[in-house]
Structure formats: C-alpha cells, structure tokens
Amino acid sequence: MAFGWIDEQAGVRRRAGLRRTLRPRAADSPLLDLASNDYLGLARHPEVVEGAVAAARTWGGGATGSRLVTGTTELHGELERELAEFCGAEAALVFSSGYAANLAAVTALAPHGSLIVSDAGNHASLIDGCRLARGTVQVVGHADPEAARKALGTHAGPAVLVSDTVFSVDGNAAPLAALAAACREHGAGLIVDDAHGLGVLGAGGRGAAHAAGLAGADDVVFTATLSKSFGSQGGVVLGPARVVDHLVNAARTFIFDTGLAPAAAGAALAALRLLRREPHRAARARAVARDLHTRLVAAGFDAVRPDAAVVSVRAPSPQTAVRWAADCRAAGLAVGCFRPPSVSDGVSRLRLTARADLSEAQIERAVRVIGDTRP
Hints:
This protein has helices at residues 5-16, 46-59, 74-87, 98-108, 124-132, 145-152, 176-185, 208-211, 241-250, 252-255, 262-277, 280-298, 318-330, 360-372; strands at 32-34, 91-95, 115-119, 136-140, 159-164, 189-193, 220-225, 235-239, 303-304, 310-314, 333-338, 349-353. It is an alpha/beta fold.
C-alpha cells in the first residue's frame, strides 16, 4: 500500500510521546501567552496592524510574483533600507520567511569546494541550509570557538562558520566575538542567524551582531526573521552590499519564491519604526526573562539562565513535558513544549518566551501555574 510505512512511524511517535498536532487558536484567546515569539508585544499593536492594513490596501493581498519579476514593491525597498540602517549593515534583502533567508545565505555562500563549520545546536533552517549547500559540512561542539577554530584549520579553501546568535531551545547566546576571531584567523566568513536577537539584544534592539561590534563588517553576514520581535512575517539577510547582490543572483529561495506579501512588509516596517521610538522595549523583554528565570530557580526548577528572551525549564521526559504543557494550558497559561527531535540533546523542556508587555502580575501568575502543575 502506498505510504503504508507512515502508519508504522505514527505508532512509533505516539508510543514515544513525540506526536505533534495542530491546535488552532481563537482570535480572543483567554490564555496568558508565554509560547509565542512576540518578544516586544507588537503583533497586535495598533500601529503594526495599521501598517499591514495600509500596505494591503495600497499594494493588494499578495506580492503577485517573485522578487525579480513583479514581487518587489517600493515598500520592500523601503523596508530593506531601514532594516540595514537600523542594524548597521551595508545592505539588506527581504525574503518570504526567516527559513528561506537562512537557506539562501548558507547555500549561496558555501559553493562546491568550501567548508561549512556548523554549531551542533543550530536551528533546523541552518541545518537544512548546510544539507543543501554544495560545500563539505563539519559539525562542531555547541558554542565552542576553539572547536570551530580547529575545524577551520583543516581546510585550505573557502570556508564559512554558521551559528545561531541566540539558540532557540535554551536561550543561550553564542560567543560571537570569539567565533569571528576564529574565522578571521583562517580567512573564513561568518554567517549568523539573529532570529532571537534582533529586537531584544544590542542598543535599542539592534541585534546580537550589533552588540558584538560585528555590524557592518565585510566578513559577517547575519540573517533574521520578521516574525518574532517585529510581530510580522518574513526574513532578511543583512551584510555587505556585494554579498546581497550575490544572493539576488544566486540564492534559489530568493529567485524562485514569491516575494513577501505587502501586508507583512508594511507590518514589519511599522514595528521597526515603533521600536526606534521606543527602544526601551528591548531592555524590558530581557528584564522579564531574567525575572522569570530568577523566580523559577527560586521555586526549585531546573531553568537555564537566559541571554535574551527565551527561558527553558527542563522536564523529566517527552511524555511528562507534553502533559505539563497541557496542564498549564488547562490552567490558563500557554507555554512551548520542546521534545526530540526538536532538541539535539534529547532533553525535553517547557519553553517560555518573555514579552516586553508582560506585567509583574502576569509574570507571577505564570510562575505560580508552572509550579502548581509541576509533574
């Protein structure tokens, strides 16, 4: 029978507590949300919503084509210019998603004959980019500059080091300055995914690369998503103008994908301008994360210290994590639940995301619910 093996795999997932299901949320959900990536609380901000509405009214519901045909509007150009200026990069290129941006950056900048050194804790989009690239991939220990340095030293040709800036599972930050130093010793490029850093780290939320003094460097390329801190949709690659021009001509997820919908571009641009006016939102998101962590540790939980806005609480097993998250939901709190294969170390977790708009009472309530539902 066609696809008969699917039933067997479904049974394996079910027995291991790894089955995933879709859960549509209502527009007026009563849950306290610590599961989304809306770090700055902008997804429903009136200015961001109006930015999406105004763009849709002006440009229509879709981009109508690929960026190289009809999918680039004046709005896309405006967003790219302002993103580059804000982040301190020479140029920016917007994609339909952060996933597509990562695939583009890695595949287009690691041709045949090159070496790709990849952190063991990287996001799936970077891993897939490594798999699709024509270079040779060497995976090194998590957040280990010395391991990266040794790997780069084994190759005489072109090379890139690929890493998240903030890792999405535990919320810990990569040692960017040390990684950049390792790359420069060997003439390698550095590609970093700042999905969880942009809007949270750096001066006014300018990102981890900016905070590390790497923005504008001619050997550093950083990617990000517009779906987290900016409360919209889409992705972006930022870096030297010659790299961006290369991506326009060589990145398949740019050339052959429909452009970002105008509504998403308008929402992201409105969020960016709002963050410029209210830079304190970035610091507030970090403060909420630290507060959550402090309270959770004081309550006896095994919680990882956050470097940005992600707080991870470890659970005994995949089944326990699923049940714990469900019990939190039943008590009015939405939290993330990370299990293998989403976590490379095999440790299941509740994943909490701090938001700049959370009140002290909401933080206290979240910690209380997690404690009351403890397995």
